[in-house]
Amino acid sequence: MSIQLFRPFTPPSPHTMKFIQNSLVILFLVSAAIAVSAQTRPLLKRTTYKTDRLDFGVGGTVEVIGAPAGSVRVEGWQNREVEISAEIEVQAETEADLAALSDATTFATEETLGRVGIVSVGLHDRQYVKRLGKKFPKNLVGMPFRIDYVIKVPRYCDLQIDGGRGDLRVSGIEGTLKLNFLETNAEIELVGGNTTGTFGTGNVNITVPTASWRGRSVDVQLASGTLNVNLPEGVNSEFDATILRSGRIENGYEELKPRVRKAAFTDKSIAAKSGLGGIPLKFTVGDGTLQISRINKTD
Q1: Which residues contact 269 (CB under 8 A, 6 or more apart)?
Q2: Mean pLDDT along residues 182-204
Q3: Residues of 198-236 as b/e, b for ≥16 C-beta within 10 angstroms?
């Protein structure tokens, strides 16, 4: 009697082949659904706080480099100190990842004679990621985080702020202001000195609180959005407002008079003088609205 060790191969039936194919398709779809579900599950959040305080005399320069996302509020005070308060929020899928991100996300100060820099530190900086070493989980690069600042500086100092996406508030500072933000809702109260501002998108409010302010010049540009200019009664200025592409100027400040008698104002351009003239105030919007208003405050 012979023993058959191997049975002859019999091709599966068309019904069986179809079943196998359908099963593979279902398996693929289920695996893909699980992967997508894992990627889109809610991220955990962790908020930490960091403060610092350092001596800083009047007349120096404070520079703030904000995070890609986060607000910056800077207030002038009488102390010869800089006080920094930061609220740092990170997001990740696990508690272990949150801990790693929290350790890697912070701010640092750069101090030299007459200058202090406040620099946001995080995984948006490629050089910083390299310095963290190969052991740091690379899957955390790109995880969302934000740093919200409240900073107090001497009233008489120069200030430069570079920010990403978030609110901006500046008040009580008499010095040179250089402000750059990609996307913001900004409130800027001017006291004195030179002011230049460049903003990408958002709503920007510029206020000259009193006619006796000690400003030397203002030049603010907004690519897209609404720029509100609030002026007091009796301010002296050489005033220019321009819409570069689409939008309009809405002038609610009656004291503006054409610098050239026959050069009428339009909804795209105003070249005016208020009071005795003198201080150049220049405002430019690419696409949007430029609103000029009078505030109900007098000297």
Answers
A1: 241, 242, 243, 249
A2: 97
A3: bbbbbbbbbbbbbbebebeebebbbbbbbbbbbbbbebb
The pLDDT score that the predictor gives to residue 40 is 61
If you ran DSSP here, which 8-state letter would residue 277 be given?
-
Cβ within 8 Å of residue 154, ≥6 positions away: 56, 57, 58, 60, 76, 77, 78, 79, 80, 81, 82
Q: What is the pLDDT of residues 17-26, one digit of tens each?
A: 444 454 444 3
- Cβ atoms within 10 A of the Cβ of 269, count? 14
Two tokens at 222?
A: 């907004």
In angstroms, the CA 245 to CA 262 distance is 24
Which amino acid does the sequence have at 4? Answer: Q
Cα(236)–Cα(34) distance, integer angstroms: 66
Tokens 């801990």 label which residue? 99
Residue 139's pLDDT is what? Answer: 87
Return the structure tokens found at 169.
Answer: 């508030």
10 Å CB burial of residue 90 (0-12, 13-18, 19+) is: buried
Residues in CB range of 185: below 8 A, 6 or more apart: 167, 168, 202, 203, 204
Do the beta carbons of residue 197 and residue 258 sit within 8 Å? Answer: no
In Å, what is the CA distance from 105 to each residue of 29, 170, 240? 37, 24, 42
Neighbours of 56 (CB within 10 A): 21
Gap between the terminal Cα atoms of the chain: 120
Q: How far is CA 233 from the centre of its chain?
A: 32
Reported pTM: 0.84
User: CB–CB of 173/84 below 8 Å?
Assistant: no
Structural domain boundaries in the chain: 43-58+66-155, 190-299
Query: Phi first, then psi: what are they for 18, rounded to 5°?
Result: -65, -40
